[in-house]
Design brief:
heterodimer, A: mainly beta, 11 strands, B: mainly beta, 5-stranded antiparallel beta sheet
Protein backbone atom coordinates (compact mmCIF):
# COMPACT_ATOMS: atom_id res chain seq x y z
CA UNK A 1 0.00 0.00 0.00
CA UNK A 2 1.26 3.45 -0.92
CA UNK A 3 -1.02 5.03 1.74
CA UNK A 4 -1.77 8.70 1.07
CA UNK A 5 0.12 10.29 -1.81
CA UNK A 6 0.32 13.97 -2.73
CA UNK A 7 1.65 15.78 -5.76
CA UNK A 8 3.50 17.99 -6.30
CA UNK A 9 5.93 18.14 -3.35
CA UNK A 10 6.84 21.76 -4.07
CA UNK A 11 5.13 24.48 -6.09
CA UNK A 12 5.73 28.18 -6.71
CA UNK A 13 2.88 30.27 -8.09
CA UNK A 14 2.39 33.89 -8.98
CA UNK A 15 -0.50 35.83 -7.47
CA UNK A 16 -3.68 35.17 -9.43
CA UNK A 17 -2.63 31.83 -10.88
CA UNK A 18 -4.73 28.73 -10.31
CA UNK A 19 -3.61 25.19 -9.65
CA UNK A 20 -4.73 21.81 -8.31
CA UNK A 21 -3.05 19.89 -5.52
CA UNK A 22 -3.52 16.18 -6.02
CA UNK A 23 -4.27 13.67 -3.28
CA UNK A 24 -4.90 9.94 -3.58
CA UNK A 25 -5.26 7.07 -1.12
CA UNK A 26 -5.34 3.33 -1.69
CA UNK A 27 -6.82 2.25 1.64
CA UNK A 28 -10.47 2.55 0.58
CA UNK A 29 -11.10 5.17 3.25
CA UNK A 30 -14.36 7.09 3.06
CA UNK A 31 -13.20 10.14 5.03
CA UNK A 32 -10.63 12.48 3.46
CA UNK A 33 -9.46 15.94 4.53
CA UNK A 34 -7.24 18.81 3.49
CA UNK A 35 -5.27 20.83 6.04
CA UNK A 36 -2.87 23.71 5.87
CA UNK A 37 -0.03 24.09 8.35
CA UNK A 38 1.46 27.48 9.14
CA UNK A 39 4.05 28.37 11.80
CA UNK A 40 2.37 28.98 15.15
CA UNK A 41 -1.08 28.10 13.76
CA UNK A 42 -1.07 24.34 13.87
CA UNK A 43 -3.03 22.24 11.37
CA UNK A 44 -6.22 23.91 10.15
CA UNK A 45 -8.95 22.08 8.28
CA UNK A 46 -9.76 23.48 4.82
CA UNK A 47 -12.30 21.02 3.38
CA UNK A 48 -13.30 17.45 4.05
CA UNK A 49 -15.31 14.66 2.49
CA UNK A 50 -17.18 11.77 4.09
CA UNK A 51 -17.49 9.86 0.83
CA UNK A 52 -17.62 10.14 -2.95
CA UNK A 53 -19.86 13.00 -4.01
CA UNK A 54 -20.00 14.55 -0.52
CA UNK A 55 -17.81 17.48 0.56
CA UNK A 56 -18.05 20.13 3.26
CA UNK A 57 -16.18 23.17 4.48
CA UNK A 58 -13.73 23.20 7.33
CA UNK A 59 -12.27 26.04 9.33
CA UNK A 60 -10.53 27.97 6.51
CA UNK A 61 -12.28 27.18 3.18
CA UNK A 62 -12.12 30.58 1.43
CA UNK A 63 -10.11 30.52 -1.80
CA UNK A 64 -10.21 26.75 -2.12
CA UNK A 65 -12.49 24.27 -3.91
CA UNK A 66 -12.70 20.50 -3.64
CA UNK A 67 -14.55 17.67 -5.34
CA UNK A 68 -14.75 13.94 -4.66
CA UNK A 69 -15.72 11.95 -7.72
CA UNK A 70 -14.06 8.71 -6.55
CA UNK A 71 -13.22 7.17 -3.17
CA UNK A 72 -9.51 7.32 -3.99
CA UNK A 73 -9.00 10.93 -5.10
CA UNK A 74 -9.59 14.26 -3.37
CA UNK A 75 -8.03 17.19 -5.28
CA UNK A 76 -7.75 20.68 -3.81
CA UNK A 77 -8.09 23.62 -6.21
CA UNK A 78 -6.73 27.09 -5.62
CA UNK A 79 -8.90 29.38 -7.71
CA UNK A 80 -6.75 32.55 -7.71
CA UNK A 81 -3.63 32.17 -5.61
CA UNK A 82 -2.80 34.82 -3.02
CA UNK A 83 0.37 35.27 -0.91
CA UNK A 84 -1.74 34.38 2.18
CA UNK A 85 -2.07 30.87 0.74
CA UNK A 86 1.66 30.26 1.09
CA UNK A 87 1.72 27.24 3.36
CA UNK A 88 2.31 23.51 3.64
CA UNK A 89 -0.75 21.49 2.62
CA UNK A 90 -1.51 18.03 3.95
CA UNK A 91 -4.09 15.56 2.75
CA UNK A 92 -5.33 12.88 5.13
CA UNK A 93 -7.68 9.92 5.11
CA UNK A 94 -9.28 7.65 7.67
CA UNK A 95 -11.87 4.95 8.09
CA UNK A 96 -14.77 5.95 10.31
CA UNK A 97 -13.57 7.65 13.48
CA UNK A 98 -10.21 5.90 13.55
CA UNK A 99 -6.80 7.47 13.27
CA UNK A 100 -6.02 9.64 10.28
CA UNK A 101 -3.19 8.88 7.88
CA UNK A 102 -1.41 11.87 6.40
CA UNK A 103 0.34 12.38 3.11
CA UNK A 104 3.87 13.81 2.84
CA UNK A 105 2.65 17.35 2.13
CA UNK A 106 2.91 19.98 -0.60
CA UNK A 107 4.94 23.10 0.11
CA UNK A 108 3.33 26.01 -1.77
CA UNK A 109 4.80 29.47 -2.21
CA UNK A 110 2.73 32.26 -3.76
CA UNK A 111 4.73 35.28 -4.92
CA UNK B 1 -15.92 26.38 21.28
CA UNK B 2 -13.78 23.28 20.74
CA UNK B 3 -10.17 24.05 21.56
CA UNK B 4 -6.83 22.31 22.09
CA UNK B 5 -3.82 23.89 23.80
CA UNK B 6 -0.41 22.25 24.02
CA UNK B 7 2.40 23.17 26.36
CA UNK B 8 5.21 23.87 26.35
CA UNK B 9 5.70 25.15 22.79
CA UNK B 10 9.28 23.92 22.84
CA UNK B 11 11.21 21.58 25.12
CA UNK B 12 14.91 20.85 25.21
CA UNK B 13 16.07 17.77 27.09
CA UNK B 14 19.33 15.98 27.64
CA UNK B 15 19.41 12.37 26.55
CA UNK B 16 17.94 10.28 29.37
CA UNK B 17 16.11 13.21 31.00
CA UNK B 18 12.45 12.22 31.32
CA UNK B 19 9.65 14.78 30.95
CA UNK B 20 6.00 15.25 29.97
CA UNK B 21 4.12 17.16 27.29
CA UNK B 22 0.66 18.54 28.07
CA UNK B 23 -2.47 18.75 25.92
CA UNK B 24 -5.44 20.58 27.44
CA UNK B 25 -8.77 20.47 25.63
CA UNK B 26 -12.37 21.58 25.62
CA UNK B 27 -14.66 19.74 23.24
CA UNK B 28 -18.33 18.90 22.85
CA UNK B 29 -18.52 15.18 23.30
CA UNK B 30 -15.01 13.78 23.06
CA UNK B 31 -14.92 10.85 20.66
CA UNK B 32 -11.16 10.38 20.87
CA UNK B 33 -7.84 12.09 21.56
CA UNK B 34 -4.96 11.47 19.18
CA UNK B 35 -1.21 11.95 19.47
CA UNK B 36 0.94 12.36 16.37
CA UNK B 37 4.66 12.79 15.79
CA UNK B 38 5.87 15.05 12.98
CA UNK B 39 9.43 15.14 11.69
CA UNK B 40 10.65 18.20 9.73
CA UNK B 41 9.41 18.21 6.15
CA UNK B 42 7.10 15.23 6.66
CA UNK B 43 3.46 14.55 7.39
CA UNK B 44 2.23 13.72 10.90
CA UNK B 45 2.63 10.08 11.94
CA UNK B 46 0.05 8.47 14.20
CA UNK B 47 1.15 7.42 17.70
CA UNK B 48 -1.85 6.83 19.99
CA UNK B 49 -5.60 7.10 20.37
CA UNK B 50 -7.20 7.53 23.80
CA UNK B 51 -10.96 7.29 24.22
CA UNK B 52 -11.85 7.68 27.88
CA UNK B 53 -10.51 9.20 31.09
CA UNK B 54 -8.09 6.89 32.85
CA UNK B 55 -6.94 5.20 29.68
CA UNK B 56 -3.19 4.79 29.06
CA UNK B 57 -1.23 3.66 26.00
CA UNK B 58 2.50 2.91 25.71
CA UNK B 59 4.95 2.57 22.85
CA UNK B 60 8.66 2.23 23.51
CA UNK B 61 9.69 5.32 25.52
CA UNK B 62 6.33 7.06 25.12
CA UNK B 63 3.28 6.78 27.36
CA UNK B 64 0.05 8.70 26.80
CA UNK B 65 -2.56 9.28 29.50
CA UNK B 66 -5.98 10.92 29.48
CA UNK B 67 -8.16 12.77 31.99
CA UNK B 68 -11.43 14.61 31.42
CA UNK B 69 -9.61 17.87 30.68
CA UNK B 70 -6.11 16.98 29.48
CA UNK B 71 -3.71 14.42 28.16
CA UNK B 72 -0.05 13.91 28.89
CA UNK B 73 2.63 12.39 26.71
CA UNK B 74 5.34 11.10 29.03
CA UNK B 75 8.77 10.53 27.54
CA UNK B 76 11.01 8.24 29.58
CA UNK B 77 14.78 8.35 29.07
CA UNK B 78 14.51 10.04 25.68
CA UNK B 79 17.05 9.57 22.90
CA UNK B 80 18.05 12.07 20.18
CA UNK B 81 15.87 10.21 17.68
CA UNK B 82 12.83 11.21 19.74
CA UNK B 83 13.39 14.79 18.62
CA UNK B 84 10.31 15.89 16.66
CA UNK B 85 7.15 17.96 16.95
CA UNK B 86 4.39 16.19 18.86
CA UNK B 87 0.82 17.07 17.93
CA UNK B 88 -2.32 16.48 19.95
CA UNK B 89 -5.80 16.42 18.38
CA UNK B 90 -9.31 15.85 19.68
CA UNK B 91 -12.19 14.46 17.72
CA UNK B 92 -15.55 16.05 18.37
CA UNK B 93 -18.35 13.56 18.72
CA UNK B 94 -20.94 15.47 16.74
CA UNK B 95 -18.87 16.23 13.62
CA UNK B 96 -15.99 13.79 13.70
CA UNK B 97 -13.63 16.62 12.80
CA UNK B 98 -10.14 16.68 14.30
CA UNK B 99 -9.07 19.84 16.12
CA UNK B 100 -5.31 20.12 16.45
CA UNK B 101 -3.16 21.87 19.01
CA UNK B 102 -0.16 23.91 17.90
CA UNK B 103 2.30 21.22 18.85
CA UNK B 104 5.32 20.85 21.13
CA UNK B 105 8.72 20.77 19.49
CA UNK B 106 11.03 18.44 21.39
CA UNK B 107 14.79 18.50 21.04
CA UNK B 108 16.82 15.80 22.77
CA UNK B 109 20.55 16.48 22.95
CA UNK B 110 23.10 13.67 23.27
Amino acid sequence: NAGVTQTPKFQVLKTGQSMTLQCAQDMNHEYMSWYRQDPGMGLRLIHYSVGAGITDQGEVPNGYNVSRSTTEDFPLRLLSAAPSQTSVYFCASREGYNEQFFGPGTRLTVL
Amino acid sequence: EDQVTQSPEALRLQEGESSSLNCSYTVSGLRGLFWYRQDPGKGPEFLFTLYSAGEEKEKERLKATLTKKESFLHITAPKPEDSATYLCAVQAGNTGKLIFGQGTTLQVKP
